[in-house]
Amino acid sequence: MLVSALREQFTKVRAFAFIDTCDEVSRYFTPGLDSAMRWPRWSAEADLVWFDGHSDYGHSFEVFAERFPDAVGPKTSLLVLGDGRNNSAPPRPHPA
User: Fold this and answer.
1) Longest C-alpha distance within the chain, in Å?
2) Cβ distance 45 to 7 under 8 Å?
3) How many Å apart are CA 89 and CA 57, to the nearest integer?
4) Closest to 42 (Cα-Cα) out of 83, 90, 85, 3
5) Which of 30, 80, 81, 86 is such that its CA lies 20 to 30 A from the CA of 19?
6) What are phi and psi of 18, to 5 degrees?
7) pLDDT tens profile 3-45
């Protein structure tokens, strides 16, 4: 609901989802798409599971940086919502 509301107010909002990898899901927030159908379509169509389907923030952020380098710029606000668990996966901090 948050992403839908943001996309209604701002033209350049992009949405990404992750489990243990990351994919852009902006296409699922087009006007007229039934909100109840978003998650079933993500699970069937979006590339969100890389290894075992447990949250892996480190790998997800690495994939995000590799696949979508144009998504973050000087005027970007990035909002990350998740379960806060990394399931014993390495955090993969960005090198300095």
Assistant:
1) 44
2) no
3) 8
4) 3
5) 30
6) -150, 150
7) 888 888 888 889 998 888 999 998 888 777 777 777 788 778 8
